[in-house]
Amino acid sequence: MSKFKKKANVKQDIPTSSMPDVVFMLLFFFMVTTQMRETNINVKQQLPEATMLKKLARKSLVAYMYIGEPKKTDEFGKEPKIQVNDVFIEPKDVIQWVNQEKAKLQEFERDQMTVSMKVDIDAKRGIIADVETELRKANARLLLYSTLQRRVEN
Amino acid sequence: MPRATPDIPNASMADIAFLLLVFFLVTTTVANDRGLQIQLPPPPEALPPDMDIKIQERNLFKIQVNSFDNVLVEGNPFTGTPEELSEMVREFVLNNGADPNSSDSPEKAIVSYKTDRGTSHKKFIEILDAVQKAYYQIYADNAGVSVKKWLELSSDLMDPENRRLYDIGRGKRPDGTPEYPMNLSIAEPTKAGGN
């Protein structure tokens, strides 16, 4: 009888006392890496895919512009619009916006400012070309078409 | 008599931490500042008015896209893959006068890219990507690195080693001009597609 009654004397609980520490560590990681988005994007944003992506070295020198069909089509219509800093602008206002963005930078950095254009895949070339013409006039000639990395099968 | 030790209940601490963790997990956005980089030409007013450059037909590689996203390459309809287009551009740039209908030298070779106002951004990026790929591949081959490595090193030219490879890749001459400049001309779009 006693043969079968013998039980292994091994603890079966997982120690949970260190769990808060582990969770806190994860928490701090995400707290540090997270960055709140300052602007609500009010246009559709499905970025195109490309293979030859370059990375911008200095994020402080980047100004963002969003182009696409407005999310609230009943209010703003279906034509693609240009959004910067929470507002829709017309191509003619681009120069003013560029000057505002440049004013935020140090003087010696102003000619290195890059405009990152986040354009929806369905937007047409016309509106983008209008913006480019204005950017040329505003002397903000470094341009980045924001895209996603296309998976290439080799 | 010993004092009563004040206890803070800490059984729920893990729950609170989890709650915060989930919050930050959800709100985290991974910033992506990656894309195709180009430099726009100076404004039309800044150019001298009598600048009338004659470019030989053989040194131009014409890519045209209409409002239906149909592509013409050198006047012929093109239905191939972006990789094929990339290869065509590469051959054109590296012709060095071998084929009388193709470019004289990489320096003179110009890729002219014209779209319509109705061309979709998706197609525009696809073609631009193919053309840039051709050039980056030439640069990477010259510098003896992979294309991926080339893209990385050309993003950070502060590093002297990167700078050195970058200059080799673009074939920098003693006078500072590159032997393989990326002559990509993005023309003002045509208006056939309306808008």
What does this structure look like?
The complex is a heterodimer of chains A (154) and B (195). By secondary structure, chain A is an alpha/beta fold. Chain A is built from five helices and eight strands. The longest helix of chain A is centred in the first third of the chain and has 15 residues, at 19-33. The N and C termini of chain A lie far apart (66 Å). The relative contact order of chain A is 0.18. With 195 residues, chain B is an alpha/beta fold. Chain B has a domain at 55-186. Chain B contains five helices and six strands; from the N terminus they run H-E-E-E-E-H-E-H-H-H-E. Chain B has helices spanning 13-27, 82-93, 121-143, 147-155, 160-169; strands at 34-39, 60-65, 71-73, 76-78, 110-114, 184-186. Chain B has a five-stranded mixed β-sheet, with helices on one face. The model of chain B has no long low-confidence stretch (mean pLDDT 84). At the A-B interface, helix 2, strand 1, strand 2, strand 6 and helix 5 of A face helix 1, strand 1, helix 3 and helix 4 of B.
Mean pLDDT of chain B: 84
Beta percentage of chain A is 15-25%
Strand neighbour order, sheet with most strands of chain A: 5-4-3-6-7
Rg estimate of chain A, integer Å: 26 Å
What is the element string of chain B, with H for helices and E for strands? HEEEEHEHHHE
Please give the count of helices of chain A.
5
